[in-house]
Amino acid sequence: MRGSGGGTRGDSWPWLAVYALLLVAGPTLAVTSAVHMHREGAKQDRLPLAGVPVTATVTDRDKGSSTSRDTTTVSYQVDGRAYTRTIRGLASGPTMTLWVDPTDPTAFVADNGSTDGSASGPNGWASVAWGVIFVALGVAGFVTHRRAKTRPGPPAKRPPSGSDRPAKDRPTAPPKRSLSRTRRRAP
Predict the structure, then answer these.
(1) Where is the composition biased (Basic residues) (predicted)?
(2) Which among 77, 134, 132, 135 is positioned nearest to 106, based on CA atoms?
(3) Alpha carbon distance 145, 4 (integer Å)
(4) CA separation, residue 187 to residues 171, 181, 184 (Å)
């Protein structure tokens, strides 16, 4: 059972390291993704009400492929300072409205619902699901490894003589002597 981590100590440690990595990476990915999504959601709720509306110029649109997301790069100015950010989603025209946080001009919500952090980080509830899957795989690996270590091996073979003692512990029979001894007769 070498592939499932059931070998000897020498060949099972890499599998144990993989299982431990999954048990560390899984909760890390799940928690950071959940915190990120919670913060982005709070920003989407707060900034349209408390933010300052700013008109941003769309400088680049990237229609994503089947493996990447659509992104839009926008440029805007707050208090004479220029900012450029990339957000998730495509803009519908050459400009878009951003609601900028007055205390942090780098934080905003766009009119398409994207935030300044939407194109970065472990963002999406799917990352939380992947974290849970990693934990499940790590636990399953450790359980499988432990079961393989505690499972009894094949029964021992009995010595061919039928004795319960191993051959090295059995007494040996004295050597056989020949019955036909030749005697020398005296002349």
Answers:
(1) 178-187
(2) 77
(3) 7
(4) 44, 18, 9
Show Cβ contacts of residue 98 under 8 Å, excluding neighbours closer than 6 positions. Answer: 51, 53, 54, 55, 56, 74, 76, 108, 109, 110, 111
- Collapsed DSSP state (helix, strand, coil) of residue 80: coil
Indicate the residue type of 142. F
What is the number of other CB atoms lying within 10 angstroms of the CB of residue 166? 10
| Integer Cα distance of 46 and 37 in angstroms | 14
Give me the residue spans of the domains in the chain.
Answer: 14-146
Instruction: Give me the tens of pLDDT residue by residue for the chain, a chain 187 residues long.
Output: 444 544 454 577 888 888 888 889 888 888 888 887 778 788 888 888 888 899 999 888 777 665 567 788 899 999 999 999 888 877 778 998 999 998 889 888 888 778 877 666 556 677 788 888 999 999 988 888 877 777 666 666 665 655 555 556 656 666 666 666 655 666 6
Distance, CA of 105 to CA of 56 (rounded, Å): 13
Residue in this structure with the two tokens 């191993």, named with its chain if needed: 166
Instruction: Return d(Cα 178, Cα 71) in angstroms, integer.
Output: 101
Residue 35 in tokens: 């915190």
What does the pLDDT read at residue 100? 92
- If one counts every other C-beta atom within 10 angstroms of the C-beta of residue 67, the result is 5
